[in-house]
Amino acid sequence: MNKVTRFIRQHQRVRHAVYQTDANIQRAVRRTAMILLSFVSLHVSAMIWLEGMPLWTAIWLTLTTITTVGYGDVSAATPLGQLATIALMYVCGITLMTFLISDYVDFRIARRERIRTGHWDWNMADHILIINSPKYNHEAYFVRLISQIRESGEYPETPIMLLNEAFADGLPDCLRQLGVVHVTGSASRPDDLQRAGAHRARHIVVLSRDEYSTDSDSFTFDVAHRLYSLHISNKVIVECVDDSNRDRLRALDIPVILRPIRSYPEIIVRAMVAPGSEQVIEDMFTHADDHTVRYPVWLEGERWADVVNAVVQASLGTPLAYVTKEGKVIKHPDGDHHVHAQSLIMLVNTEHTPSIRDVQRAIEVHFNKRMENLV
User: Fold this and answer.
1) Cβ atoms 301, 295 nearer than 8 A
2) Strand, coil or helix: what is 5?
3) What is the pLDDT of residues 180-192, one digit of tens each?
4) Which of 41, 70, 77, 287 is 20 to 30 A off residue 248, Cα-Cα?
């Protein structure tokens, strides 16, 4: 029965604490503490006046009585002194002490619940703020994105905050362990942006609510416009589903606009660490501007720097890697590395994609000229 009673009381206390504001609880704590201090002062004065105690002895007796420690080394001896102790300490002081502890516990419970449910004002600065949440598999996506941010080397300890309505019941342990906090709310509300410290953030990432729906661009534009009004759009990275909406976002001085590529959150990290590189990466996911092509080119020990030079001087593209005769892909080898390859993997322009023969001829011409110069 005692366990059931304790559970019910704890549940009621949590509900009572959660529905109070921090200001109300703090006012209650201060009010109770001031009243308690008054009774403590009165009892100390009574012990000095009625019992003839020194100041420190009166304080010692008062504190041991109000905390129910009761050493018994000092006590009131006169009837008036005992009556003062009964009235000021036993009836009023200990009761107020109980109220004070209760209010403090309420404050701690309220604080913990507000943090857990994302309603705490973190007063954070120089952090990474991630607005919105993917429609599908948001927990797995955030774990992958934040893990990539931590592993980048630039932000191993940088605070990361999420502003969305996806974790109203609290962040999962896998995100808290990565040093993430959250604010439950919407970036379309100025108060929520204020609580998230958007104006103090180092980077702001605005994710698309639904990476498959162009309607989500409308909400993204509303958030971007609010950030523009706060004069902080220069540190914003925005996801845009429909490419035709990019010009509207650029007009708000948004420096980085990306397609939502959920399987590769590293592109957002690259946009933060090396602005501009995200455009190169994004091109690799489409066939619009640049794309990678594999060309069958047989190489027998030529220096990688010479191979790259041959292709670049012929304006055919940029070699990124080569495939060994055993089928292994070697990415970005050293310039002095001697290549034994069956194929080259190159980044080429979609509108001017060279043929296999063009690449083979460029390499042959380059090395023939080198041989002639050596002779």
Assistant:
1) no
2) helix
3) 999 999 999 999 9
4) 287
* Interval 21-71: pLDDT, tens: 566 667 777 888 888 888 889 989 988 998 888 999 889 988 888 887 878
Contacts for 156 with CB less than 8 Å, ≥ 6 apart: 150
DSSP state of 199: G
Model pTM score: 0.67
CA 46 – CA 44 distance, rounded (Å):
5
Tokens of 88: 């000021």
3-state SS of 257-310?
EECCCCCCCHHHHHHHHCCCHHHHHHHHCCCCCEEEEEECCCEEEEEHHHHHHH
H/E stretch holding 15 reads helix 2-18
Alpha helix ranges (H) inside 74-215: 79-85, 94-116, 138-151, 173-176, 190-195
The sign of the torsion formed by the CA atoms of 280, 281, 284, 285 equals negative
Tell me if residue 98 falls in helix, strand or coil.
helix
Name the one residue in this structure whose structure tokens are 């953030």: 201
CA pair distance 203, 142, nearest whole angstrom: 16
* Token pair of 304 as six digits: 């990688």
Output phi, psi for 161, to 5 deg.
Answer: -125, 140
CA end-to-end span of the chain, whole Å?
Answer: 101
CA distance 268 to 152: 11
Question: Letter for the amino acid at 220?
Answer: T
Rounded-to-integer distance, Cα 179 and Cα 151, Å: 13
* Backbone conformation region of residue 185, classed left if phi is above 0, alpha if psi is from -120 to 50, else beta: left
Residue 353 DSSP class:
P
Q: Which two tokens stand for residue 69?
A: 């420690």
Residues whose CB is less than 8 angstroms from the CB of residue 249 and which lie 6 or more positions away in sequence, other chains included: 220, 221, 224, 238, 240, 257
Q: Is there a contact between 159 and 127 (Cβ–Cβ < 8 Å)?
A: yes
Instruction: State how far the Cα of 363 lies from the Cα of 308, in Å rounded to an integer.
Output: 9
Taking the C-alpha atoms of residue 227 and residue 204, their distance in angstroms, rounded to an integer, is 9
